[in-house]
Amino acid sequence: DAGITQSPRHKVTETGTPVTLRCHQTENHRYMYWYRQDPGHGLRLIHYSYGVKDTDKGEVSDGYSVSRSKTEDFLLTLESATSSQTSVYFCAINPTGYGYTFGSGTRLTVV
Amino acid sequence: SQQGEEDPQALSIQEGENATMNCSYKTSINNLQWYRQNSGRGLVHLILIRSNEREKHSGRLRVTLDTSKKSSSLLITASRAADTASYFCATVRGGTSYGKLTFGQGTILTVHP
Question: Is A50 on the interface with B (CB under 8 A)?
C-alpha cells in the first residue's frame, strides 16, 4: 500500500535466532502498530507506538520487542525465534479519524 | 481475546446476490471499522462508522451499527466475483486507546460467477 512498506516480505529462520522485521512509512503518522495473523485467531496486536521512542505492549507481546527511533521506522524484533512465532506479520499506520493503512505483510517461518 | 466476533464464518453466494455479514463486540467503542483481505494480501479499509452514527454507505457497501446491541452489519449489494475475500470487523474502544484496533476472526465470502 502506498506510504507503508514492510521488509522482508518472506523469511525463513531457525529456532533460537534473532529476527528483525522492518516497517517504513512515508506518511509522517504518529501511530504505528504491529499485528500477527494466524488461522483461527484473526489479527492480534503485538506492540504499538504513539511517537518516537514511545511504545507499549499489545495483546500478544511475549517474545517480541520493538523500537522506534525515527517517525518513519518501526522495528519488530523476535529475540529468540520459536516455532509458535511462525505467522504473517502486518504493520499498520493510523491516520487519525480514518481507517488503518496496512503494509503487505511479512510471512515468517521458524524451522 | 477477540473484541469482535463475526457471523457467519463463511458465506457462499452467486454473483448479483447480496451478502450480509454480522459483527458483535463486547465493550463500549469509539468506532467500528470493516476491512477486506484478499488471499495472501494485506488488509484494505472499507468503511468506518462512529459510535454516534447508525448507518453509513459507500458505493455498494452499507454498514449499520447498533450500540445498544453491540453489533454491526456489513451489506454488500449486487455482489461480484471480485468481492471474494475475507472480511473483518474491528473496533476502537472508548477512552484513551491510542487508536488500537481489536479484530474479529473474519467472514470468508465466496462469490460464484
Answer: yes
